[in-house]
Each structure stands twice: as C-alpha cells, then as structure tokens.
Amino acid sequence: MTQTLHVQIKSADRSDLEKRLEAIDAGEDVDPSEPTLSIENLETFGRVFRSTNLELLEAIVEHEPESIRELARLVDRNPPEVLENVNELADYGLVELEKNGRAKRPVVWYDEIDADLPLTTKSEQGPKANA
C-alpha cells in the first residue's frame, strides 16, 4: 500500500491543529488528516528536495539501510556529506534517525511524495477581469 506525504509551499498554519487538539481534549471523534509538510517558500523547497536529497530518500525507501555509512555506500558518496544531508531531511521531518547499536538508521514511513506547487500567490488567483 502506498503511503503518501503531501508537501505544500506555504507558511505552517497551526490554527487547524489547535482546533483538532481542542476537539480531542473535548472527547470528540476526529478524523485523521493527511500527513502534510509545509515548506516556507520555493527556494527552501528547492534546497530540501534537490537531486542529492531525493536520491537519498529513494535509496532509504528501496534498500532500508541499517546505517548512514551503508546509505553512503548505496549512493556512492562520503558518509559525512550524507550525514549532513540526512540531518537536513530529519530537521524537516522527512527522515527519522533510529538508534541501531552505535549507528543511526535512516527511516522514512512514506514511499511517495505529492507536492503542491502554486505558480501564483493567493492574491492573484481570483478571476481576471477582461479589459
């Protein structure tokens, strides 16, 4: 079964989260929401999802490496560089690092990313008047 992470470019909006938490606290049933990552802007999106990071995510999903060193071998890169990229991905919640003895095992729960990339700002999306 495919697990999808939805990515959007916009500031993180926590108002819905606060409403959901209040409903849970009140004992109400709350439908699970789709897992969504909000990226601040297109520049950050490009940095986070650059080809080297996507290659790491693909290798983690396909090969389930037991360590950063094994992941580095899979992508034919130096372990310190891979660790730096994996830490960046972990900072955005795209990778989890599990303790595996003395090593850290990179793990992702999804196998597909769905990105919402708007080409206009919200204020420009309304209907245009004919001149």
Summarize the topology.
Elements: E1 4-9, H1 15-25, E2 36-39, H2 42-48, H3 51-63, H4 68-75, H5 79-91, E3 96-100, E4 103-107, E5 112-116
Parallel strand pairs: 1-2, 1-5
Antiparallel strand pairs: 3-4
InterPro entries: WH-like_DNA-bd_sf, WH_DNA-bd_sf
Protein name: Putative transcriptional regulator
Organism: Halorubrum alkaliphilum
Describe the structure.
The structure is a single chain. With about 130 residues, the chain is an alpha/beta fold. Helix content is about 40%, strand content about 20%. It contains five helices and five strands. A three-stranded parallel beta sheet has the order 2-1-5. The chain has a two-stranded antiparallel sheet with strand order 3-4. The longest helix is centred in the middle third of the chain and has 13 residues. The radius of gyration is 18 Å and the shape is globular. It starts with a strand and ends in a 15-residue tail after the last strand. The model has no long low-confidence stretch (mean pLDDT about 85).
Q: Strand portion, in percent?
A: 15-25%
Give the N-terminus to C-terminus distance in angstroms: 50 Å
Mean pLDDT equals 83
Helix content: 25-40%
| Biggest sheet character | 3 strands, parallel
* Helical run tally: 5
Number of strands: 5
What's the multimeric state?
A: single chain
Key terms:
single chain, 131 residues, alpha/beta, two-stranded antiparallel ribbon, 5 helices, 40% helix, WH_DNA-bd_sf, WH-like_DNA-bd_sf, Putative transcriptional regulator
